[in-house]
Amino acid sequence: GVILLAVGVWGKLTLGTYISLIAENSTNAPYVLIGTGTTIVVFGLFGCFATCRGSPWMLKLYAMFLSLVFLAELVAGISGFVFRHEIKDTFLRTYTDAMQNYNGNDERSRAVDHVQRSLSCCGVQNYTNWSTSPYFLDHGIPPSCCMNETDCNPQDLHNLTVAATKVNQKLIGMLLACCLSRFITANQYEMV
């Protein structure tokens, strides 16, 4: 939860230029991450409170929330995987459009400059992509270009260990909450 909250705040503060290239209008993705992270933190505190109180129904509610979060993350991950090509194509299309309309002064031009500086790249594939831009005909390659022939898109990172750890954490959390709830319920019947 705290990580989602931090990523949402970080995304809002630092990824605005990338998002402005992709979306014509402002996007709510950072706000969704901030809201989701805050909700998870609140429910995490609820889980701690339920454990301290030793309340079986609160622990069952917490386990149910963990399972809903797990399902939501699973759906989001699958959606991201299924639509990864569309996301990449959208970014490349809008980035190419921003290069064609580059003038060095407007917001999208500053976003292109920021992308090229931060990724140490030039153009969509390489610096020759600028040759079709009206800006290139008058001014040449923009100063933000590093003029190397590397691809501007960073390689996809596939880290199965991190994904498996996240899945296992959620499953272990659900299992422990249910076990603790059963243990407390069984002990309450023995006490009476």
Give a quick set of tags describing it.
192 residues, mainly alpha, Cd81 Antigen, Extracellular Domain, Chain: A, elongated
**Proportion of residues in helical segments:** over 70%
Count of discrete alpha- or pi-helical segments spanning 4 or more residues:
8
CA-based shape: elongated
CATH architecture assignment of the largest domain = Orthogonal Bundle
CATH class descriptor of the largest domain: Mainly Alpha
Number of domains: 2
SSE class: mainly alpha
Which spans of ≥5 residues are poorly predicted at pLDDT below 50? 147-158
Q: Report the span from N to C terminus.
A: 38 Å
Largest sheet properties: none
Total number of beta strands: 0
Concise structural overview:
With 192 residues, this protein is mainly α. It is 73% helix and 0% strand.
Report on the structure:
The structure is a single chain. By secondary structure, this protein is mainly alpha-helical. It is 73% helix and 0% strand.
Q: How do the strands and helices of this protein lay out in sequence?
A:
Elements lengths: L1 H13 L1 H7 L6 H25 L2 H27 L1 H17 L6 H13 L14 H6 L20 H32 L1
Helix pairs in contact: 1-3, 2-6, 3-4, 4-8
